[in-house]
Design goal:
single chain, alpha/beta, nine-stranded mixed β-sheet, 8 helices
Amino acid sequence: MSDLLGNLEAYIRTLPAVDVRVTLSHSPLADETPMRAESEVIPGGRELAEECGIMAIDVGGACKGEFCCFMDGMQRPRGPIYVNSPVPILYGYVAAAIRVRGSDRRMRTLPGFHKVDESLYFSVGMAERYGLTISGVKIVDTSDSDTIEHPIALAQVAYDKISTIRGALESELAAKWVDQNKGPGWLLVDGSLQSDYGEANVVGVTKSHGTQYLTWDEQRVVLSMKVGERSGAFIPLVHGRRRPVYSWYLRMHPSEGKDPYFGLIRVEAPRSARALAMIDDISRWILAERAPLSLPDSRWDKMIYPIRDCELYMKSLAPSHTSLDARLFRLSEISRSREG
Protein backbone atom coordinates (compact mmCIF):
# COMPACT_ATOMS: atom_id res chain seq x y z
CA MET A 1 0.00 0.00 0.00
CA SER A 2 1.32 3.45 -0.91
CA ASP A 3 1.77 6.24 1.62
CA LEU A 4 -0.86 8.36 -0.12
CA LEU A 5 -1.61 10.69 2.80
CA GLY A 6 2.11 11.10 3.45
CA ASN A 7 2.63 12.12 -0.18
CA LEU A 8 -0.32 14.53 0.08
CA GLU A 9 1.24 16.07 3.18
CA ALA A 10 4.57 16.50 1.36
CA TYR A 11 2.78 18.21 -1.53
CA ILE A 12 0.85 20.56 0.75
CA ARG A 13 4.06 21.61 2.49
CA THR A 14 5.42 22.83 -0.86
CA LEU A 15 2.60 25.35 -1.23
CA PRO A 16 3.58 28.96 -0.42
CA ALA A 17 0.31 29.68 1.38
CA VAL A 18 -1.71 26.98 3.13
CA ASP A 19 -5.18 26.79 4.63
CA VAL A 20 -5.95 23.15 5.44
CA ARG A 21 -9.18 22.09 7.09
CA VAL A 22 -10.04 18.49 7.89
CA THR A 23 -13.26 16.84 8.97
CA LEU A 24 -12.45 13.94 11.27
CA SER A 25 -15.07 11.22 11.39
CA HIS A 26 -17.57 11.38 14.24
CA SER A 27 -18.04 7.61 13.83
CA PRO A 28 -14.47 6.24 13.86
CA LEU A 29 -15.55 2.64 13.34
CA ALA A 30 -17.70 3.26 10.27
CA ASP A 31 -16.21 1.88 7.05
CA GLU A 32 -19.14 2.43 4.75
CA THR A 33 -20.08 5.68 3.06
CA PRO A 34 -22.49 7.96 4.92
CA MET A 35 -26.02 6.78 4.29
CA ARG A 36 -28.59 8.99 2.71
CA ALA A 37 -31.89 9.38 4.55
CA GLU A 38 -32.98 5.91 5.64
CA SER A 39 -36.49 6.65 4.40
CA GLU A 40 -35.23 7.15 0.84
CA VAL A 41 -36.19 4.16 -1.30
CA ILE A 42 -35.02 3.59 -4.85
CA PRO A 43 -37.97 2.68 -7.12
CA GLY A 44 -37.57 -0.47 -9.14
CA GLY A 45 -39.82 -3.11 -10.64
CA ARG A 46 -40.03 -6.78 -11.48
CA GLU A 47 -41.09 -9.33 -14.03
CA LEU A 48 -42.34 -12.59 -12.56
CA ALA A 49 -40.12 -15.59 -13.33
CA GLU A 50 -42.31 -18.34 -11.81
CA GLU A 51 -45.96 -19.03 -12.46
CA CYS A 52 -46.68 -19.07 -8.73
CA GLY A 53 -45.96 -15.36 -8.49
CA ILE A 54 -44.65 -13.77 -5.29
CA MET A 55 -45.80 -16.28 -2.70
CA ALA A 56 -44.09 -17.92 0.30
CA ILE A 57 -42.48 -21.26 -0.65
CA ASP A 58 -40.94 -23.71 1.82
CA VAL A 59 -37.58 -24.78 0.36
CA GLY A 60 -37.39 -27.93 2.45
CA GLY A 61 -34.74 -27.14 5.06
CA ALA A 62 -30.99 -26.58 5.07
CA CYS A 63 -28.70 -28.80 3.01
CA LYS A 64 -24.92 -28.80 2.69
CA GLY A 65 -24.16 -27.34 -0.70
CA GLU A 66 -21.47 -26.50 -3.21
CA PHE A 67 -20.28 -23.11 -1.93
CA CYS A 68 -16.49 -23.24 -1.65
CA CYS A 69 -15.46 -19.63 -2.32
CA PHE A 70 -16.74 -16.36 -0.88
CA MET A 71 -16.21 -12.76 -1.96
CA ASP A 72 -16.65 -9.46 -0.16
CA GLY A 73 -15.45 -5.90 -0.56
CA MET A 74 -14.79 -3.02 1.81
CA GLN A 75 -14.36 0.75 1.65
CA ARG A 76 -12.78 3.03 4.22
CA PRO A 77 -13.45 6.69 3.36
CA ARG A 78 -12.01 9.56 5.37
CA GLY A 79 -12.38 13.33 5.27
CA PRO A 80 -13.36 15.60 3.65
CA ILE A 81 -10.09 17.53 3.44
CA TYR A 82 -10.13 21.16 2.25
CA VAL A 83 -6.89 22.68 0.90
CA ASN A 84 -7.01 26.40 0.05
CA SER A 85 -10.56 25.98 -1.29
CA PRO A 86 -14.09 24.82 -0.45
CA VAL A 87 -13.64 21.78 -2.72
CA PRO A 88 -13.95 18.61 -0.57
CA ILE A 89 -11.21 16.00 -1.04
CA LEU A 90 -12.05 12.47 0.12
CA TYR A 91 -9.50 9.81 0.97
CA GLY A 92 -10.73 6.37 -0.07
CA TYR A 93 -9.28 2.94 0.67
CA VAL A 94 -11.10 0.20 -1.23
CA ALA A 95 -10.47 -3.56 -1.27
CA ALA A 96 -12.04 -6.81 -2.45
CA ALA A 97 -11.09 -10.42 -1.74
CA ILE A 98 -12.13 -13.98 -2.50
CA ARG A 99 -11.49 -16.58 0.19
CA VAL A 100 -11.70 -20.33 -0.26
CA ARG A 101 -12.89 -22.80 2.37
CA GLY A 102 -10.67 -25.87 2.47
CA SER A 103 -11.56 -29.44 3.36
CA ASP A 104 -10.41 -28.64 6.91
CA ARG A 105 -13.06 -25.86 7.02
CA ARG A 106 -10.34 -23.20 7.33
CA MET A 107 -10.57 -20.08 5.17
CA ARG A 108 -7.67 -18.99 2.98
CA THR A 109 -7.23 -16.24 0.42
CA LEU A 110 -7.02 -17.40 -3.16
CA PRO A 111 -3.65 -16.33 -4.66
CA GLY A 112 -4.13 -13.18 -6.72
CA PHE A 113 -7.65 -12.58 -5.41
CA HIS A 114 -7.07 -9.68 -3.04
CA LYS A 115 -7.22 -6.27 -4.76
CA VAL A 116 -6.66 -2.86 -3.16
CA ASP A 117 -7.13 0.70 -4.41
CA GLU A 118 -6.11 3.82 -2.47
CA SER A 119 -6.94 7.22 -3.99
CA LEU A 120 -8.02 10.80 -3.40
CA TYR A 121 -11.48 11.63 -4.74
CA PHE A 122 -12.40 15.18 -5.76
CA SER A 123 -13.43 17.41 -8.64
CA VAL A 124 -10.14 18.21 -10.36
CA GLY A 125 -11.69 20.97 -12.47
CA MET A 126 -13.09 22.83 -9.48
CA ALA A 127 -9.86 22.45 -7.52
CA GLU A 128 -7.90 23.94 -10.43
CA ARG A 129 -10.11 27.03 -10.31
CA TYR A 130 -8.46 27.74 -6.96
CA GLY A 131 -4.98 27.07 -8.28
CA LEU A 132 -4.82 23.66 -6.62
CA THR A 133 -3.09 21.07 -8.81
CA ILE A 134 -2.25 18.10 -6.61
CA SER A 135 0.57 15.87 -7.82
CA GLY A 136 2.41 12.81 -6.59
CA VAL A 137 -0.72 10.93 -5.52
CA LYS A 138 -3.36 8.78 -7.20
CA ILE A 139 -6.49 10.83 -7.98
CA VAL A 140 -10.01 9.86 -9.06
CA ASP A 141 -11.65 12.84 -10.75
CA THR A 142 -15.28 13.18 -9.64
CA SER A 143 -16.10 16.14 -11.91
CA ASP A 144 -19.69 16.01 -13.11
CA SER A 145 -21.50 18.85 -14.87
CA ASP A 146 -24.78 17.80 -13.24
CA THR A 147 -23.48 18.13 -9.67
CA ILE A 148 -24.58 21.16 -7.66
CA GLU A 149 -21.51 23.22 -6.84
CA HIS A 150 -21.90 22.93 -3.10
CA PRO A 151 -19.40 21.23 -0.72
CA ILE A 152 -22.00 18.77 0.61
CA ALA A 153 -23.11 17.75 -2.88
CA LEU A 154 -19.51 17.43 -4.08
CA ALA A 155 -18.64 15.27 -1.06
CA GLN A 156 -21.60 12.97 -1.73
CA VAL A 157 -20.48 12.52 -5.34
CA ALA A 158 -17.03 11.54 -4.04
CA TYR A 159 -18.53 9.05 -1.58
CA ASP A 160 -20.63 7.55 -4.39
CA LYS A 161 -17.54 7.25 -6.58
CA ILE A 162 -15.73 5.34 -3.84
CA SER A 163 -18.61 2.84 -3.87
CA THR A 164 -18.36 2.62 -7.67
CA ILE A 165 -14.64 1.81 -7.51
CA ARG A 166 -15.36 -0.85 -4.89
CA GLY A 167 -17.98 -2.39 -7.18
CA ALA A 168 -15.51 -2.40 -10.07
CA LEU A 169 -12.91 -4.24 -7.96
CA GLU A 170 -15.47 -6.83 -6.92
CA SER A 171 -16.65 -7.33 -10.52
CA GLU A 172 -13.04 -7.76 -11.66
CA LEU A 173 -12.37 -10.47 -9.10
CA ALA A 174 -15.66 -12.27 -9.75
CA ALA A 175 -15.03 -12.29 -13.52
CA LYS A 176 -11.52 -13.62 -12.93
CA TRP A 177 -12.88 -16.38 -10.69
CA VAL A 178 -15.51 -17.37 -13.26
CA ASP A 179 -12.86 -17.49 -15.98
CA GLN A 180 -10.56 -19.73 -13.92
CA ASN A 181 -13.09 -21.97 -12.15
CA LYS A 182 -13.95 -25.04 -14.20
CA GLY A 183 -15.00 -27.31 -11.34
CA PRO A 184 -18.31 -27.91 -9.58
CA GLY A 185 -17.72 -25.41 -6.76
CA TRP A 186 -19.75 -22.22 -6.40
CA LEU A 187 -18.84 -18.64 -5.46
CA LEU A 188 -21.06 -16.72 -3.04
CA VAL A 189 -20.78 -12.95 -3.42
CA ASP A 190 -21.77 -10.45 -0.75
CA GLY A 191 -24.04 -8.08 -2.66
CA SER A 192 -25.67 -7.91 -6.06
CA LEU A 193 -24.19 -9.54 -9.16
CA GLN A 194 -22.83 -6.66 -11.24
CA SER A 195 -22.33 -8.52 -14.54
CA ASP A 196 -23.93 -11.10 -16.79
CA TYR A 197 -22.31 -14.39 -15.76
CA GLY A 198 -24.25 -16.66 -18.12
CA GLU A 199 -24.49 -20.08 -16.46
CA ALA A 200 -21.55 -19.59 -14.11
CA ASN A 201 -21.63 -21.00 -10.57
CA VAL A 202 -22.11 -17.61 -8.89
CA VAL A 203 -24.71 -16.41 -6.38
CA GLY A 204 -25.12 -12.96 -4.84
CA VAL A 205 -26.67 -12.26 -1.44
CA THR A 206 -27.92 -8.77 -0.55
CA LYS A 207 -28.52 -7.70 3.06
CA SER A 208 -30.03 -4.26 2.32
CA HIS A 209 -33.52 -3.65 0.99
CA GLY A 210 -33.41 -0.08 -0.28
CA THR A 211 -34.75 -0.84 -3.77
CA GLN A 212 -38.50 -1.46 -4.06
CA TYR A 213 -38.90 -4.22 -6.63
CA LEU A 214 -42.27 -5.55 -5.46
CA THR A 215 -45.76 -4.17 -5.16
CA TRP A 216 -47.10 -3.31 -1.71
CA ASP A 217 -49.12 -6.54 -1.46
CA GLU A 218 -46.11 -8.60 -2.60
CA GLN A 219 -43.93 -6.92 0.03
CA ARG A 220 -46.44 -7.91 2.70
CA VAL A 221 -46.10 -11.54 1.59
CA VAL A 222 -42.30 -11.39 1.75
CA LEU A 223 -42.18 -9.69 5.15
CA SER A 224 -44.50 -12.36 6.56
CA MET A 225 -42.35 -15.30 5.44
CA LYS A 226 -41.19 -17.84 8.03
CA VAL A 227 -37.69 -19.29 8.43
CA GLY A 228 -36.78 -21.49 5.48
CA GLU A 229 -39.30 -19.89 3.16
CA ARG A 230 -38.49 -18.04 -0.03
CA SER A 231 -40.49 -15.84 -2.32
CA GLY A 232 -41.30 -16.63 -5.91
CA ALA A 233 -38.49 -15.63 -8.27
CA PHE A 234 -38.53 -12.48 -10.35
CA ILE A 235 -36.37 -10.52 -12.78
CA PRO A 236 -35.38 -7.19 -11.17
CA LEU A 237 -35.99 -4.02 -13.18
CA VAL A 238 -33.89 -0.91 -12.56
CA HIS A 239 -34.82 2.24 -14.51
CA GLY A 240 -37.04 0.01 -16.62
CA ARG A 241 -34.15 -2.26 -17.67
CA ARG A 242 -34.07 -5.99 -16.95
CA ARG A 243 -31.06 -7.07 -14.92
CA PRO A 244 -29.35 -10.32 -16.05
CA VAL A 245 -30.34 -12.20 -12.89
CA TYR A 246 -33.15 -14.10 -11.22
CA SER A 247 -33.82 -12.88 -7.70
CA TRP A 248 -35.83 -14.05 -4.71
CA TYR A 249 -36.14 -13.32 -0.99
CA LEU A 250 -35.18 -15.86 1.69
CA ARG A 251 -35.83 -15.81 5.43
CA MET A 252 -32.72 -16.91 7.35
CA HIS A 253 -33.82 -16.34 10.96
CA PRO A 254 -37.18 -15.84 12.70
CA SER A 255 -38.41 -12.24 12.80
CA GLU A 256 -41.30 -12.62 15.25
CA GLY A 257 -41.16 -9.70 17.69
CA LYS A 258 -38.37 -8.05 15.67
CA ASP A 259 -38.01 -5.78 12.67
CA PRO A 260 -39.79 -7.44 9.69
CA TYR A 261 -36.51 -7.34 7.74
CA PHE A 262 -34.67 -9.27 10.44
CA GLY A 263 -33.06 -12.35 8.90
CA LEU A 264 -34.33 -11.48 5.42
CA ILE A 265 -31.94 -11.54 2.46
CA ARG A 266 -32.38 -11.17 -1.28
CA VAL A 267 -30.59 -13.73 -3.46
CA GLU A 268 -29.45 -13.32 -7.05
CA ALA A 269 -28.34 -15.95 -9.56
CA PRO A 270 -27.45 -15.60 -13.26
CA ARG A 271 -30.56 -15.54 -15.43
CA SER A 272 -30.52 -19.00 -16.97
CA ALA A 273 -32.85 -21.98 -17.10
CA ARG A 274 -30.32 -23.90 -15.01
CA ALA A 275 -30.35 -21.33 -12.20
CA LEU A 276 -34.15 -21.09 -12.24
CA ALA A 277 -34.39 -24.86 -11.77
CA MET A 278 -31.90 -24.72 -8.86
CA ILE A 279 -33.52 -21.96 -6.79
CA ASP A 280 -34.66 -24.29 -3.99
CA ASP A 281 -31.27 -26.05 -3.94
CA ILE A 282 -29.39 -22.75 -3.75
CA SER A 283 -31.69 -21.56 -0.97
CA ARG A 284 -31.02 -24.72 1.04
CA TRP A 285 -27.27 -24.26 0.57
CA ILE A 286 -27.50 -20.71 1.94
CA LEU A 287 -29.55 -21.88 4.93
CA ALA A 288 -26.80 -24.39 5.72
CA GLU A 289 -24.32 -21.49 5.98
CA ARG A 290 -26.10 -19.96 9.01
CA ALA A 291 -23.77 -21.76 11.43
CA PRO A 292 -21.57 -20.59 12.95
CA LEU A 293 -23.31 -17.27 13.60
CA SER A 294 -21.50 -14.11 12.50
CA LEU A 295 -21.50 -12.68 16.01
CA PRO A 296 -20.65 -10.16 17.34
CA ASP A 297 -21.40 -8.38 14.05
CA SER A 298 -24.68 -6.47 14.34
CA ARG A 299 -25.68 -7.81 10.89
CA TRP A 300 -25.34 -11.44 11.97
CA ASP A 301 -28.96 -12.21 11.08
CA LYS A 302 -28.24 -11.57 7.38
CA MET A 303 -24.50 -12.31 7.15
CA ILE A 304 -23.04 -15.78 6.78
CA TYR A 305 -19.79 -16.51 8.61
CA PRO A 306 -17.49 -16.92 5.54
CA ILE A 307 -18.46 -13.41 4.40
CA ARG A 308 -17.61 -12.07 7.84
CA ASP A 309 -14.27 -13.90 7.55
CA CYS A 310 -13.58 -12.11 4.24
CA GLU A 311 -14.40 -8.79 5.88
CA LEU A 312 -12.14 -9.41 8.87
CA TYR A 313 -9.31 -10.50 6.58
CA MET A 314 -9.47 -7.31 4.50
CA LYS A 315 -9.75 -5.07 7.56
CA SER A 316 -6.69 -6.70 9.09
CA LEU A 317 -4.64 -5.51 6.10
CA ALA A 318 -6.22 -2.07 5.73
CA PRO A 319 -4.87 1.11 7.38
CA SER A 320 -6.54 1.44 10.76
CA HIS A 321 -9.06 4.12 11.61
CA THR A 322 -6.68 5.48 14.23
CA SER A 323 -3.71 5.75 11.87
CA LEU A 324 -5.81 7.44 9.18
CA ASP A 325 -7.25 9.97 11.60
CA ALA A 326 -3.75 10.66 12.93
CA ARG A 327 -2.51 11.40 9.40
CA LEU A 328 -5.50 13.67 8.77
CA PHE A 329 -4.82 15.49 12.03
CA ARG A 330 -1.24 16.09 10.88
CA LEU A 331 -2.62 17.74 7.74
CA SER A 332 -4.87 20.02 9.81
CA GLU A 333 -1.84 21.10 11.86
CA ILE A 334 0.09 22.38 8.82
CA SER A 335 -1.78 25.71 8.76
CA ARG A 336 -1.17 26.25 12.47
CA SER A 337 2.53 25.44 12.19
CA ARG A 338 2.86 28.05 9.42
CA GLU A 339 1.11 30.64 11.63
CA GLY A 340 3.44 29.84 14.50
